[in-house]
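Structure ticket #2291
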Amino acid sequence: MPLSPNVKQKLVGVTALLVIFAILGSLLVLGRPQDPDFAAYEAQTQKIFEDAKTQFERIRNVTLPQDIQLYVYTKQQAVDRWGKTSSSSDTTSVLRQETIYKGLFLMDETESLEGATAEWIASWNAAALGNEIYVIYENFKPWNMPDAEATLIHELTHIWQEGLPASSSYDTNKAYNALAEGDASYMSDYYKTHYYNTPTVSEVSAYTENLPAIINVVKLPSVYPSVPAVVTELNWFPYIQGKAFVSAIVETGGWDQLNLCYTPSYLPSTTEQILHPDKYLAGETAKTSSAPTLADKSWTLIPTSYGYDSDMYGEYFIYVMLNRWLDDSQAQQAVAGWGGDTFSYYEKSSDFLFTWNITWDSVQDASEFHQAFLDLLDLTQTNPQGNNAWVTHGRYLTLTWNPNTTSTLIVCSTNPDIGDPSFFT
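Resolution: structure written out below.
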């Protein structure tokens, strides 16, 4: 059955995925011929579904569950079933994430993480839930071979995949999704390459609660310029980098090596491992990072979406943050020595406080990130306040690094006292 991400996974990730699929959906309806009558459509869909099961079992040398069901939904049926609006608590979580993103210069002040909800559901091509596969009548084209059957093989991969343990952090969740989505995309590409000898295109799918959805596109254009670019880049990670990771694993040890990735002792746990399969194969995991202790105990710690006091963003998140302002070479160099990180979020009255401690592999790595972040701050044209402090749009930010140490600390708040040495104990 499909992998089950933590029920409490970060809502900004959900919102980001909604936005991405709303964008992609706009491409899928352009230039499509009129759909044939529903009965013929359903018969053709069922035909290639049966063949897809045979092809999947042949490629992977496994046996799929016998009770997999295929359903044809219209856009409206999908929206009616899954297009529920977010609760007020969901909205609050999204706004908190938006505050962090803006504080780290990942978003412009005019941008918002709140976006389309039902639109993206109407743009699905196919989805898997439990032992059920749904195809969307207006979007899924069963005569468009081999792409249509490859899409079903993608979804069958999700049904076959073993359930993974609940994620403990943002970064781990990205790594789990990269394994799941990378595997499914690799399978659909493998099918097309080996059985149709056709070039492959990007295949995108995502998990929203227990529901993965897949859409096939050649590239992602800037159809909606108001959508934050960071939303797109962060949420394409499991699909693009995940497939590259799976490809490297299969090339190293074949399907057996890939299957081993699903066992508890061999699960990829960081985006660093996904980006650098050699580090995954070497067993390199995240180092422990400690959050600073506040002197003022009146701040309220907001639990993470995973129910913990802190979370971890990981190497890829830091890369995206830097690459928004710096060239790709400098951004990659600055994050190459990532070792681990931890962030916490607090509130007091109308103030917020975000602390982010990043551990690096060496003093040199910490120095390179420190310089890269200073370069980022120069480009954002924030107002320096002295003592490694800056202010913009009512938010104060400090960057602390003691030379000869391997940790850097970023603090952002609406409270100007964060620059006072006595703010932390």
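Closing remark: The two ends are 48 Å apart (CA to CA).
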